[in-house]
Design a protein that fits this description.
Belongs to the SS18 family. This protein has about 80 residues and is an all-alpha fold. About 55% of the residues lie in helices and about 0% in strands. It is elongated, with a radius of gyration of 15 Å.
């Protein structure tokens, strides 16, 4: 199950920290690899579920980025 999935009753209560974001990025990496593998094997319809999870994760990350005040985001040098 995606780390971005939070049940309705817990939404807004989950703490977003660097570890959670890193796990989500690693999950996205794995999802992309699975999608590419399925597509290269001609099984595009089998990768749709992974595309949906990846899309949800990306929307979640974008929402966090939009809600983070300027100057508080960590940058990678």
């Amino acid at each position: 199950m995606s780390v971005a999935f939070v049940p309705e009753r817990l939404r807004g209560k989950a703490e977003v920290n660097q570890e959670t974001l890193q796990r989500l990025l690693e999950e996205n990496d794995q999802l992309i690899r699975c999608i590419v593998e399925y597509q290269s094997k001609g099984r595009a319809t089998d990768c749709v579920q992974y595309q949906h999870i990846l899309h949800r994760n990306l929307i979640y990350l974008a929402t966090i980025a939009d809600a983070t005040p300027p100057g508080t985001q960590n940058t990678v040098d």
